Amino acid sequence: MRGLGLIQEGNILRAAAVLFGKREFLETVMPQCLLRVARFRGTDRSEFLDNRQFTGNAFVLLESAMRFLLDTIPIASHFEPGRIERIDKPLYPPLAVREALANALCHRDYAMGGGSIGLAIYDDRLEVTSIGPLHFGITPDDLFEPHESRPWNPMIARVFYRRGIIEEWGRGTIKMAEWVTSAGLPHPEIEEHLDCVTVRFWNPEYTPSKYDDHDLTEQQAAVLAILRESGGAMALRHIRTALGNQTDERRLRKDLILLKDKGLVKLSGMGKGRGALWKPV
Q: Torsion angle, CA of 118/122/125/127, rounded to 10 degrees?
């Protein structure tokens, strides 16, 4: 660690813990060494398909994120004439996502105790988010043009460079964009908002469903998801049970009526002794 500049005057620097700390130490002393990964149904955060958290040093977090990515994103397979082996092509180029994750780990603000790195996969996009703003007057647009490399955590960036994970000369985000466009995807986006930086990759194969254009509350979206997954019609009491029996029945009834007015659900089975049954349109 002395050779890497991670010890000064006999003191181990924070960068050393970020790079090489053990999980047990980081969980109590540096809980900001955290990775959150999730796969959502649809285009918002109303419904999880998968949700995990990992604590560890930067190398562990990068490996965990890439494993989740390859286990989660769709894979397109095809055969080419003259080749026996099947060719698998992930929807999002792994090298481009890896670059975004490595940049997030190098440039995020580790002084913020509640921070984390986020990898979120939606039906229409993939997002990598890190805590902390862009520094040194750099804007998101600057990152896709030739620019000087000025990492916020230069010691972490130096170790990642020696390991062959990142470029040191400010070409990482440019190469990321090249990988994405070469794969036939739209140009990636970088957004700075509320002391967070998000890298966004768009899914060109996504087709919006009729539910995406409606402004729904979290509960209304959850009710829609329950009805779609049921494969049939459901009584109000069964919907309430599926929501956890904590939902006010009057509010649930109002939500169903609103969904009906929006043309997203309909009533059926109004026979005697059976009550109303709700089903998606």
A: 0
